[in-house]
Amino acid sequence: MNLSNLRPAKGSVRERKRVGRGQGSGMGGTSTRGHKGAQSRSGYSRKVHFEGGQMPLQRRVPKFGFKNINRVEYKPLNLDSIQALVDATSVTVVNLEFLREHGLVSKKDLVKVLSRGELTTAVEVHAHAFSVSAKEAIEKAGGKAILPSQETKEEAAN
User: Fold this and answer.
1) pLDDT for 42-57, tens place per residue?
2) How deeply is 113 buried, as exposed, middle or buried, from its count of CB atoms within 10 A (0-12, 13-18, 19+)?
3) Relative to the CA of 153, which of 10, 33, 75, 125 has its CA 20 to 30 Å away?
């Protein structure tokens, strides 16, 4: 045995069709593409969802609802998670940078404080929105619920 008589194992390699190599090959003439029509031409590509003229699936399936382009999406933050942070770090001011540092929100998130759990420590909480019950719970514990618009007013007053 030497390099000149090495062959792949029988049946492991399939021979490809050699189309367009004359009538003797059995695949000359139209090169297995049939006669005329778009599919016989070079450069033909079928549309992704084309189903042979049948109504495509994405048009057969019923549509409902809509996406409101003006919707404001808030990241929820509950009182129990604020209390857990305060217990772990003993801070008195929970602002957006502090929440980012601790991985609760990302840079562009709008934060809304919700009232799940309870707050036992007086904490100043800065967020984009508060539920009514969360705001009451924060103030009842002796803290402050501060919106971004109130921050700018306080800075202007100082």
Assistant:
1) 999 988 889 989 999 9
2) buried
3) 75
